[in-house]
């Protein structure tokens, strides 16, 4: 007798086993998620962000398999979608992680690859942009500040050698050369009393005979400086200078000098005056007089005369004579039927006017 494999007589013999549909849908969803999520499997240069692989930005990198792009360290940088970082080239630097390499500014330098910062050039040196080393400041320039630039020496200053931190001042008696690399001695006839000053021509009445003079010397009395201010010359005849450092001037009317190098003019005696060049005295001409030493000859007034030269005073016309004009050398007799009331008349009075008491000057 054959045994029934199913002890439950009420189960239908043709019923088959099955999996619930809810379990099938859950398994399918898990399969889809697993296939869409490449965990730790982004290509180099990509990082996982927001549920997908995205290109790395400049300054970041990924060498593959990373969850996110990483920052490039200081001294390095990268372009977009980079799998590694490159060191900053000499002359550039990057002080910030994730930043970019930038050129060193003038006055700074970076001599090696991978610099995180540019170094200041020391005093007396400088550099251009993106420099890998510093150059000494040329002669005639200076740089007193680390990281600064070389500039031309200032007014009255010089730098004889390259690499100067601070320019030197030219001493008195010199002035700076156009090159700013040396000081030149003041030329004869010029002087400079100040450090960092300029040579200037000596003033009239002073002189500088040698090169490198700090001050101009006063010419002594009786002399003045030459036009080139290198030496003094004596005052010529007819001129004088009573002051040291002064100039020679022509003697005034009535005074003279007969020799060179005179400090003061001499006064002409009464009855004389100086000639046109003031080199000697001459007698006053007839009709003129000079009553004081050092004066000028004056014309005799009407009613007076000077018949001889060298008169100190004019004589009054005698009674019944007259001199009508200035500068008379003689008096004229009164015409007939005229006369003068007193000596020194400039005109004669007729008898009629005289009898009537007319006062004629």
Outline:
With 361 residues, this protein is mainly β.
- Give the DSSP E fraction (strand runs of 2 or more residues): 15-25%
Head-to-tail CA distance between termini: 207 Å
- Mean pLDDT across residues: 89
Helical segment count? 2
Radius of gyration: 59 Å
- Structural class by helix and strand composition: mainly beta
Shape: rod-shaped
Query: Count the strands?
Result: 38
Give a quick account of the main beta sheet: strands, pairing sense, barrel closure. 2 strands, antiparallel
Low-confidence residue ranges: 1-38
Helix fraction bin: under 10%
Strand order of the largest sheet: 1-2
Please characterize this protein's 3D structure.
The protein is mainly β. Helix content is 6%, strand content 24%. It has 2 helices and 38 strands. A hairpin with an 8-residue loop joins strand 3 (60-61) and strand 4. It is rod-shaped and about 160 Å long. The termini are far apart. Mean pLDDT is 89; it is low at 1-38.
Descriptors:
mainly beta; 361 residues; 6% helix; two-stranded antiparallel ribbon
Tell me the layout of helices and strands.
Blueprint: H1 21-36, E1 46-49, E2 52-55, E3 60-61, E4 70-71, E5 76-77, E6 86-87, E7 92-93, E8 102-103, E9 108-109, E10 119-120, E11 125-126, E12 135-136, E13 141-142, E14 151-152, E15 157-158, E16 168-169, E17 174-176, E18 183-185, E19 190-191, E20 200-201, E21 206-207, E22 217-218, E23 223-225, E24 232-234, E25 239-240, E26 249-250, E27 255-256, E28 266-267, E29 272-274, E30 281-283, E31 288-289, E32 298-299, E33 304-305, E34 315-316, E35 321-322, E36 332-333, E37 338-339, E38 349-350, H2 351-355
Antiparallel strand pairs: 1-2, 3-4, 5-6, 7-8, 9-10, 11-12, 13-14, 15-16, 17-18, 19-20, 21-22, 23-24, 25-26, 27-28, 29-30, 31-32, 33-34, 35-36, 37-38
């Amino acid at each position: 007798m054959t045994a029934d494999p199913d002890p439950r007589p009420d189960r239908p013999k043709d019923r088959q086993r099955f999996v619930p549909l809810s379990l099938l849908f859950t398994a399918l969803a898990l399969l889809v998620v697993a296939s869409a999520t490449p965990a730790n499997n982004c290509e180099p240069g990509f990082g996982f962000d927001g549920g997908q692989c995205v290109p790395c930005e400049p300054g970041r990198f990924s060498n593959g398999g990373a969850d996110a792009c990483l920052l490039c360290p200081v001294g390095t940088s990268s372009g977009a979608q980079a799998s590694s970082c490159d060191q900053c080239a000499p002359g550039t630097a990057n002080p910030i992680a994730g930043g970019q390499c930038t050129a060193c500014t003038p006055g700074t330098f970076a001599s090696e690859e991978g610099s995180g910062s540019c170094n200041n050039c020391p005093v007396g040196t400088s550099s251009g942009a993106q420099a890998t080393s510093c150059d000494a400041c040329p002669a005639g320039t200076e740089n007193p500040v680390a990281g600064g630039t070389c500039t031309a020496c200032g007014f009255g200053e010089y730098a004889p050698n390259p690499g100067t931190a601070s320019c030197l001042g030219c001493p008195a008696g010199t002035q700076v050369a156009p090159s700013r690399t040396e000081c030149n001695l003041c030329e004869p006839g010029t002087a400079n009393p100040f450090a960092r000053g300029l040579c200037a021509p000596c003033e009239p009445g002073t002189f500088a005979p040698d090169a490198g003079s700090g001050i101009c010397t006063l010419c002594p009395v009786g002399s003045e400086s030459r036009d080139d201010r290198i030496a003094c010359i004596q005052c010529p005849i007819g001129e004088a200078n009573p002051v040291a450092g002064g100039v020679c001037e022509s003697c005034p009317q009535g005074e003279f000098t007969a020799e060179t190098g005179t400090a003061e003019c001499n006064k002409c005696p009464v009855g004389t005056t100086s000639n046109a060049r003031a080199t000697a005295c001459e007698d006053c001409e007839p009709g003129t007089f000079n009553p004081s030493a050092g004066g000028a000859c004056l014309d005799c007034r009407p009613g007076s005369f000077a018949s001889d030269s060298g008169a100190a005073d004019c004589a009054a016309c005698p009674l019944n004579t007259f001199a009508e004009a200035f500068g008379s050398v003689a008096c004229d007799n009164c015409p007939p039927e005229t006369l003068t009331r007193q000596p020194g008349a400039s005109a004669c009075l007729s008898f009629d006017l005289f009898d009537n008491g007319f006062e004629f000057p």
